[in-house]
Every structure is written in C-alpha cells, then in structure tokens.
Predict the 3D structure of the following.
Amino acid sequence: MYDFIISFSYLVASVLFIFGLKGLTHPKTAVRGNLLGACGMLLAVVVTLTDRHIISYEYIILGLVVGGAIGAVLAIKVEMTSMPEMVALLNGFGGAASIFVAGAALIESSSLTDAPILQLTIATAASGLIGAVTFWGSLVAFGKLKGLISENAILFSGQQVINSILALLVLGLSIGVVLNPESFSLYWMLVAVSSVLGILLVIPIGGADMPVVVALLNSYSGLAAAATGFVLSNNVLIITGSLVGASGIILTHIMCKAMNRSLTNVLFGVMGPSGEGGQTADEVYGGKVKSASPEEVALLFDAARRVAIIPGYGMAVSQAQHPVASLAALLESRGTTVEYGIHPVAGRMPGHMNVLMAEADVPYDALKDMDEINQTIDQVDVALVIGANDVVNPLARTDPSSPIAGMPIIDVDKAKTVVVIKRSLSPGFAGIPNPLFALDNSLMLFGDGKKMVLDIIAALKES
Amino acid sequence: MGKSFSHVFEKPWDSRLNLPKNEEIVMEMFLMSFTVFVLAIFVGFEVITKIPPTLHTPLMSGSNAISGITLVGAIVSTGTELWVTTVLGFLSVVLATINVIGGFMVTNRMLAMFKKKS
C-alpha cells in the first residue's frame, strides 16, 4: 500500500508539471502554471520524506535549508539583464546534482548486491557523463556571459582532435563503468574526463551564439535528470527529465533556425569575417554614414505617426530598457503608435528582450515577433534600432557569400527612416560591416544607449 | 490490513533502488521505464511547441525548477546509513534545492511583470 501511495503521488506531481508547462502557453495563465509546478514539487518532496529507507533527517534538512536559502537569494537579487547567467548556473547545478545522485546509487547498489543490473549501470554512466558535461559547460557559459572569460570564440589548433580523443575516452570509460560497476574510481574518472570535454565544447563558442548554448545545456540538464530516473527506476524523474529535455531541444532548434545555421555549425563551425567577396568597412561606410544629434532625432519622432523599436543585446548592456519604455510612453501620449520588433536571437537567451521590456512595464502585446513586424515595417515612419546589429543587416538578404546569408532579419531598411543608436561603427558578432548604417534613410546616433534615449526624451519634452 | 493481503503490494525485490531478483522482471522494468520516457518526450514536444516566444525565458527558468526533481533521489541517498552516500546525497540536495527554489521564485518574479495593455 505504501509503495502505491508514493507512486501515485509521483504521478500526480508529473501531471502538475505538465499542466504547469501548459500554463506557460499564455501570459495570463503563466503565473498559475508556475504555481501548479511548485505544488507538484512540494508534493513529490513531502512524499519522499516519508520514505522508509531514510534513517536520519539531519543532513536532509540542512541541505534543504542551505539550498533553499541560496536559491531564494539568487532569485530575489538577480537583475533581469542577467537572466541568461542565472539560467546557465541553474542548468549547471541540475547537471551536478545528477552526477552525485547517480554516484550515490552506484555505491549503494554495490553494497546491496554483487552485480547491479544493466539498466542501473548504463544509466549511471549516462548520468555521470551528461551531468558533468552540463555542469562544466554551463560554468563556462556562465563565465562568458558574466565576462569572466573572453566572450569571443577561444580557438586553438588541434581542438577537434583533442575533443575526438576525449570523446573516445569518455566512451571507453562508460563501457568500463557498465562492465565493472563495483570499481567506483572508473565512475569518477568518467566524470572527470566528461568535465574536461564539457569545458572544451563550450570554450570555442562566441557570445552571440550563447542563446543556442544555453538552450542546449537546458536540454542536457533535463536528460541528466531522466538518466538519473533510469538509475533509480523512478518515473517522476524520467517524465520531468524528458519534458525539460524536449523543451531545451525545441528552443535550440528555434534559435538555430533564427540564425539560419545548423546546430553542428554553431557548436563546431567557426564564424569569422568572410575573407573573399565581402566588402571592407571603408567601402561600405566611406562618406555615406550620417551622424545625427539627439535633438535632430527628437524632431523626427515629433513628426512620426508610427514608430518601431528594435532592441538588441546592447540595450541590455547599457540597461536602457526603462528609458526606452519611457520614450515609447511619451510618444504614445502624443498619439504616435509604438511597436517593438523582437528578433528570436536578440539578447543572450531565448526571450531575453521580452523579459527586459516586461520589466520596464511594456505590455506584452506591444511586442511583435520578427514575422509580424516585418509585414508592416514599410508603413513605419521611424525605426529605432538600439543595441542590435547583425539581426538588422540587409546583407543577409542580398549577399549570398556573407556569413549571415539567409538568416532571417528584421527589415528595418524598408522603414521610411532608420535611427541606429550605437557606440561606434564596430561590427557585430558576424564581424561584417552593416550597409544599413550607410543607407540614405539611415541616421546614426553615436553614444551610450541609455544616455542617448534620455537625451531624445529631454529634447522631445522641450519642443 | 491482514497478512494475507500484504503479498499483493509486496514487490519481489526490496530496496529503494528496486533491484529485482530475476532477469525477466529486469527487462520488463526497463521497458516500462523506457515507454514512459518516450511518451513523456512526445507530451513535452506537444506542450512546449505551443509556448509563445515572449515566454521563452520563463520557460527555461521554470524548466530549471522542475528538473530539480532530482531532489527526490537526493533526499533518500542523504538519509541512508552509508556515510559516502550521505555526503554525495547532501551535496545533491543542496544543488537540486537551489534549482527548485531559485527556479520557481525567479520564474514567478518574471511572470508577474508580464502585463497586457490596459
């Protein structure tokens, strides 16, 4: 009877998780969905605490208190601009937890029987391997996002060879763990080598590709949990792990599609300035770039009836989301229509810009996705690009030899006037010049995003 | 409940790791787990493809929170008598709880900011 109650409670928890995710299909039901998920988790934890194999509670309670406190502080303190770092860190912790749980189960099973069953040993090897790659990969991603490690792709010769050797080593050690589950050192060696592999796999990936990496590591953390579920023959872990795994894979796919690149290309390909065929910055910009002052831009806005704002990672860096929202509110109070155009890979994680604008009290229905904003962009009087570059580069449409060829972009060049707020003419992640800046209908506003927007607001209020 | 009924609910194995004693049950158990795994992936795809891009960041932090379900396994490891598993269990309880509490709280904080045009 006791086992039945436990299994049934786990089933209820799994159903609550699914309903929780279903709640996320609309902002109106999302808060409730998140609470449903939390209820499911509470149920699963409470039921587990009654497990008759538990003989002492001191360390469990200590662990829950310490982990809960750290989690709560992180959740309350984190800036919305730093959400990618937070998610990367949480992905990593999920992976690490799987390593330790599977390791503990391996030790325990060997103390109970002479030969642990194959399912347990294979799943243990998988948990250790995926968990370690997830943990260290996520730490590198965290370091890159936080600026502790160079955001640029770190490349060295023989990288692929070393990775291949490590992958073979990992495979060999996994087989070793499966065949000799009683020698625990093999398991920890597998974890160690997988850790190195995790670091080396993420190190060569550059900053703007972080949305893909963070989404992929999200998926791995789910798969690690599912593998641990196979170790413990526990369905709630398997179900939850597969849900998270599926979620991460879908997001990874969306991100890759939004850059018109394959996952292999993001992970192993090198995206650098195109050697031949591409024009140099001087050829593209020479004498054609017009710089404007905040006052001139304010005059443009004054006359505009329809405005589109296209934010990018640069807006997050200069923390300009609140001034941008104030500018939009000011324009709307004067009868101008204001919309936001959000590119799927703008920012450093899926949906990054949406959260920033929500933080600045911008209603979610004012945020249009790329396809939607592109349909009406030719009716826009002023398109304001702030901190975005490659996602508005028309070369993606016109130059088949460019590294971003075929990438879907927001067609701001079709708007009547384009205002670009940017610190300098330096190229974006793709390393290519952007002909948008040299168009007849483009104006550059050089400076810090936040300061420039505040200057425009001041100028608008004076006029 | 009398002794005569207890065998109905008693498994042919006993340990939290559900270590079975016979080959056939091993295969059957694995196939059951694998069925659940495959079906759950399909459910995941169905549900998650319907989530709009606006909510992709909360989706990631929320899925971080539920992948903290590893906590369930971690708790039992911590409570067993072997000191090694207690140490490993304790570490994983801390890590998984950070995921659960941090994940749900930050997701809630984000979602509370999403408002419709008034």
